[in-house]
Design goal:
Blueprint (H helix, E strand, L loop, with lengths): L4 H14 L5 H8 L3 H13 L3 E4 L2 E4 L3 H8 L2 H12 L7 E4 L18 E5 L5 H4 L5 E5 L3 E3 L4 E3 L1 H7 L4 E7 L2 E3 L3 E4 L2 H12 L1 E7 L11 E4 L6 E5 L4 H9 L3 E5 L2
Parallel strand pairs: 3-4, 3-8, 4-5, 8-11, 11-13, 13-14
Antiparallel strand pairs: 1-2, 6-7, 9-10, 10-12
């Protein structure tokens, strides 16, 4: 049976991640579809920002880790990003941290006016560049392809120059004892600095990350104003968060 379009896209990305030199004809043969169909699939993937077309083939635009994260729980990430965007008002300046979910926030700011985004999230530019009402300040630092973000001392120094109304920060895990955490100390330091430079701090975190503590602590639950998550947030964590004064926003799928 011929694979569906969505299945083909996933397979094409997997093949290109492993071998960026594969040709259109080879892809057609692997997937048992016509060359015309593969070309249409590649055009769709290019429009979505996943690949760059080359002579006779294509190559992924992102690091394999980023591609995997972008493909995982896409619907849930989309709903969380949409809910986060609803908290941004006309005329606001906001900080948005690196992450595949946070990168989607600008996609849902169409119709808002005069929004200024300060970010280290290079993936975010994919969605921000088409909205003339968005002004984006990209902080300096070292580009890390596996995170699609800028990191390091220069990034933290750049953030000293700004103060914003809201920060939307991504995290790698959350536990009652450690609060919100990251896998790397460098990432935790950077996200904590982003939180310091904002009047209000909102964590972007799907429910699967609760109970999974990262290596480095970012902030305790009491250190944030709001959490934007999905409806599957564990009840015990919801109780702890509300006791810490955190407002919880549950995105609808």
């Amino acid at each position: 049976m011929t694979p569906s379009f969505s299945d083909r896209k996933k397979t094409i990305l997997e093949i290109l991640t492993e071998d960026g030199g594969v040709s259109v004809s080879a892809l057609a043969q692997m997937l048992d579809v016509s060359v015309v169909t593969i070309r249409a699939d590649l055009s769709a993937l290019e429009e979505e920002g996943f690949i760059i077309r080359t002579h006779g083939g294509a190559m992924p635009t992102f690091h394999p880790q980023i591609l995997e994260r972008m493909r995982t729980d896409k619907e849930r990430k989309t709903s969380i990003a949409r809910a986060a965007a609803q908290l941004i008002q006309d005329g606001e300046t906001v900080i948005i941290s690196a992450g595949t979910t946070t990168a989607l926030i600008p996609k849902y700011l169409l119709g808002r006016r005069n929004i200024h985004i300060v970010t280290n999230n290079t993936l975010l530019l994919t969605y921000a560049r088409t909205n003339p009402q968005l002004r984006v300040t990209l902080v300096g630092g070292e580009f890390r392809p596996s995170e699609e973000g800028l990191v390091g001392p220069l990034t933290i120094q750049s953030l000293d120059q700004v103060f914003v109304s809201k920060a939307f920060i991504g995290v790698d895990g959350a536990s009652v004892k450690q609060g919100f955490t990251a896998h790397l100390v460098e990432s935790a330091d950077l996200v904590r600095k982003m939180a310091e430079q904002a009047q209000q701090v909102f964590v972007i975190c799907d429910s699967s990350k609760f109970g999974k503590s990262g290596f480095a602590r970012i902030l305790p639950f009491s250190g944030v104003d709001g959490l934007i998550t999905d409806a599957a947030l564990p009840p015990d964590f919801e109780t702890n968060l509300r006791d810490a004064g955190v407002t919880i926003y549950k995105a609808e799928l």
